[in-house]
């Protein structure tokens, strides 16, 4: 059912002109869905985001030894350090809320770990484009979802996610490398399109279906009623996910790839 859902969304997704970075990165609503009622409580929101940032750091540092040359290795090391700073910033926000970061992250380690196991690239280039596409999309998503937090907390999240060191590095090295190999370009285009389905599943997992559908969390439902709850939740997310697919397309376009 969920696969049919994002297949449909891919079909109807709109193509947008690439906006300026400050406009593209700012948390915003597309006017079709108000995310405020669906933003998780701060501990849940920040716990998921913190673990995503920690796993980004882990993935990038693991790839250092596979870098094609020393120049790329040094730059990737800098980008990995910046990703860890993002994790530390989110962990600090949790601490200011009186929450231990490891406790907040623990409920999401299995789900996010499974996500990464499904999206492991076969080489350095596939990993770099994965982080560029997946974390770029998820960062944008969490910026938007932060609209339901307090203004002060939302500003802290925006500041924590502001650095674009890795994004700039990835775009440059991928364009350089694909310019030297049409085979690599074709392979990365296919891989980029393949990633979209899994990232949509991770995006949807950040929400509580019952909350989206307006059903009490403790309500006892039949299998059919639960199915209807899920369908209702998916339906409410369609405008947002349609826009996310378009954002993914923009990131692919920036590399000269077709989504």
Overview in brief:
By secondary structure, the chain is mainly α. It has helices spanning 2-12, 21-25, 42-63, 70-96, 101-105, 109-118, 124-145, 151-160, 165-179, 182-205, 209-213, 223-254. It starts with a helix and ends in a 5-residue tail after the last helix.
Please tell me the total number of domains. Answer: 1
- Major β-sheet profile: none
Regions with little confidence, pLDDT below 50 for 5+ residues: 1-31
* Fourth-level CATH superfamily: Ferritin, core subunit, four-helix bundle
Total of helices: 12
CATH class, named Mainly Alpha
For the residues shown, what is the average pLDDT?
85
CATH topology: Ferritin
- The rounded distance between the terminal residues' Cα atoms is 23 Å
Number of strands: 0
Cα-atom radius of gyration? 18 Å
SSE-based structural type: mainly alpha
Regarding quaternary structure, how should these chains be classified? Answer: single chain
